[in-house]
Structures are given as structure tokens and as C-alpha cells.
Amino acid sequence: DGGALSGRFQRVQLAARRPVAQTEAVKPEESNKSPLNPAQLPRLDLTVEDLRAGQAELGRLDLRTARIADGQRIEQLQTSGSGGKIGARGEWRRRAGRSSADLQLDLESNAVDQLLSAMGYAPNISAKRGRFEAQLRWPEQAESARNGIRWALGNGELKLKLDNGSLRAVEPGA
User: Fold this and answer.
1) Are 53 and 73 in contact (CB under 8 A)?
2) Using CA atoms, how far apart are residues 67 and 59, in angstroms rounded to an integer?
3) Which residues are within 8 A (CB) of 133 and not within 5 positions of it... i.e. 6 or more apart?
4) DSSP 31
5) Distances 46 to 107, 117, 174 between C-alpha atoms, Å
6) pTM of the full predicted structure?
7) pLDDT tens digits, one per residue of 115-171
């Protein structure tokens, strides 16, 4: 058991993620580090009144996780602020040397390009308002499961709705 981490913060400013090239995103692990084991990480109980990532103003964050067999469950991950809102639930497990995860994500934003930049993606979508709904999986049976969870290797369904928006560019493999 990794214990628990609890915190209440007035403001947290995160740096925007460095953009990752498509070829870097799917490279096999090149280090000798073992993948993270979610069962050994602390349970989280965090509240941030003013969360920012790069130029994206995410507003209030409430994050609660719970221990489950072989991993953790996101009980609540919710942001709400002037830039929009994010809600997520999911599970992350590691057993028999393999990782798996499920994530349900609902995101609404009136600053889509800023949010994409903060997450390390090219701001190739512009919109007055955007909504993303995702059901993503990283199955235990996948070849990459031995190396832990790799964001770029998830699969699932993504629904996208843009109001007064456009796709600036679509790169191969998107």
C-alpha cells in the first residue's frame, strides 16, 4: 500500500507538456526503469481552487482515487472553470507483469487550442466551443502492456463536437 496523499491548494500552475513527435510517442521503452505499479502509489485526495496548465485555465480541481485489487480507481477527477470542464473516471491495474487501464473522459472547453497545447498536442483544432467524449482502453493482452501504460497506444472511441470550429490540420495517424 502506497499510503495516502491529501492536499488543499489555492493555486497550482503546471507547465504545458512539451510536444511529443508521433515517432517518439510509440517508441518502445529505452530505459531500464520498471513500469509504475499503481498499487504502490498513494491514494489521492486533492483539491486545487485555481488549476492552470500552460495558458489553459482549468479552474477548480477535485481528484479522489481509491485502492482496488492490483491498482487504483479514479473515483473523481473533475475540473470546472471559465475555460470549461473536465470529468473522468477510470481504473489502472498492474498484475503478472502487465499493465491495463480504462478511462472515461468528458471534456468541454471554450479554449480548445489552449487546452491542446497545454497537453502537449499541436493546436490543430480551433473552436468557439468544443466537446470531447472518450472511452479509452489499454488492454492487458496488448504487446505493449509489459512496458506500462503508454498514452499513445490506447484504443477506444472518441466523439468530437465543435461549435464554430475547424480542423487546422490533420496529421497522418490522427
Assistant:
1) no
2) 27
3) 105, 106, 107, 158, 159
4) S
5) 19, 24, 33
6) 0.79
7) 776 677 777 777 778 899 999 999 988 878 888 888 788 899 999 888 887 777 665
